[in-house]
Design goal:
This protein has 100 residues and is an alpha+beta fold. Helices cover 50% and strands 13% of the residues. It has one domain.
């Protein structure tokens, strides 16, 4: 039974990853939510360097935000996702890969 649940969960994440570009909120963050994340992060990182960030999930928009706007302040960005397949699929959608 657990194997069946695991397979079903992996299939769900594959469908989400394959259709990411066509999904909207609530499946992925809206433009407004990304702007809010960016604004809060800018305030929190204003006087900090060598920050480590944790993204719960592999959301490419959040990963891009970190790479585009905060890479000079961040030492590392970590992603924690339900499956490695989802992380790999979302990595294909990142527009600004982390060079580190």
């Amino acid at each position: 039974m657990n194997d069946e649940i695991s397979i079903a969960a992996n299939e769900k994440w594959k469908i989400i990853a394959d259709n990411w570009e066509t999904l909207g909120p609530t499946a992925k963050p809206s433009v407004e939510e990304i702007e809010l994340y960016r604004a809060v992060t800018m305030i929190e990182l204003a006087d900090k360097q060598n920050v480590r960030a944790l993204i719960m999930g592999s959301t490419p928009e959040l990963r891009d935000m970190c790479s585009e706007y905060f890479l000079s302040k961040m030492e590392k960005v970590y992603c924690v996702d339900a499956t490695e397949d989802m992380y790999r699929a979302m990595s294909q959608l990142v527009k600004t890969p982390n060079p580190k």
